[in-house]
Amino acid sequence: MTLGLWYALRRLALAVPTILAVLTVIFFAMRTLPGDPAYAILGDVATAESVAALRETLGLNKPVATQYIDFVAGIFRGDFGSSLVFNRPVIDEIARVLPYTLELTVASVMIGSLIGIPLGILSAIHRNRTLDYITRTLSLVGFSIPVFFIAILLILLFAVKLGWFPVISSGHPGDLGARLNDLFLPALTGALPLVAMMTRATRSSMLEVLGEDYIRTARAKGAPYRLIILRHALRNALIPVITIIGLYFALIIGNSVLIETVFTRPGLGSLIIGSLDNRDYPMVQGLLVVYALIIVVINILTDLTYSMIDPRVKHS
To answer: Of 9, 32, 63, 241, whose CB neighbour count within 10 A is largest?
Structure first.
């Protein structure tokens, strides 16, 4: 077994107790909310018979230990229960909107990385010059503006005034061109804070690497400066940058609630807001599990990416 495969299997094994811990927290958090979930769903005017029937449907009349075992076993089987609003399996409804949130997340990270990393490199190369001051100022502005306010500004400029993009991002599942057109403004909204983070992180990491002895040695030997930047400096500067990307994947998953609400876009964020409004207890619980699993998977992929860039990580 190669060292890389062993490292990947070890990271996957370590994810199992993490997932169990997350499932445990979600289970007990949902059951320690004040009040009876059945009354919260049906309302105070519900009859005793309807409350008893709902408690039977949700399994709330079982001992807590039995509920926990059934919950964990159901998650590992892919059974998240049934939605009280849609009257369908929770996993089916989540699978219907999950692609919209994933494409929003991936597009935001791609745009943010493609803009932020080059800006960070240029800022480091032109340290304490005009370009450096401009990028640092813009990144500070990007940190300061809330995501929902960025969304409103982009809608006012590109959708209302210029008319280039729709105000409502409905998805258009069958039309790729229309779907990309709908995706652009929400993805740009999610990408702009990442541009600020990536610019500062890349600049800081590049400045540290450019001060290393092996960079000075390469320059002294007459290696082309562009080759030094792209082959030697950038690769060694990428680990902290990848950390930022991994963290932002998790952050944009959370921000999807705001972005999808502002753009009236389908996705996990819109679904969880609607489920909270409708008191769809099984759907909210299932969505929290999916959010947590996505973040765990992102952390695993981040660790595996570390190992590909820096082989020393596999020995840790």
So the answer is: 241
Question: SS3 of 297, please?
Answer: helix
Q: What pLDDT does 173 receive?
A: 61
How far apart are the C-alpha atoms of 148 and 298, rounded to whole Å?
Answer: 24
Complete DSSP assignment for 179-241: HHHHHHHHHHHHHHHHHHHHHHHHHHHHHHHHTSHHHHHHHHTT--HHHIIIIIIHHHHHHHH
pTM, to two decimals: 0.77
Beta bridge partners of 82: 89
> Who has greater pLDDT, 87 or 37?
87
- Angle subtended by helix axes 268-277 and 234-262, to nearest 10: 40
Neighbours of 20 (CB within 10 A): 13
CATH number of 98-315: 1.10.3720.10
- Separation CA 208–CA 237 (nearest Å): 8
Q: Is the dihedral of CA 275, 77, 60, 67 positive or negative?
A: negative
> Domain spans of the chain?
33-79, 98-315
What is the C-alpha separation between 157 and 163, in angstroms, rounded? 8
Helix (H, G, I), strand (E, B) or coil at 231: helix
Q: Which residue has the higher pLDDT, 175 or 95?
A: 95
Distance between terminal CA atoms of the chain? 17
Question: Above pLDDT 70, what percent of the chain?
Answer: 82
pLDDT band per the 50, 70, 90 thresholds, residue 35: low
3-class SS of residue 73 = helix
Q: What is the pLDDT of residues 237-263, one digit of tens each?
A: 777 777 778 777 777 777 788 888 888
Which pLDDT belongs to residue 236?
A: 73
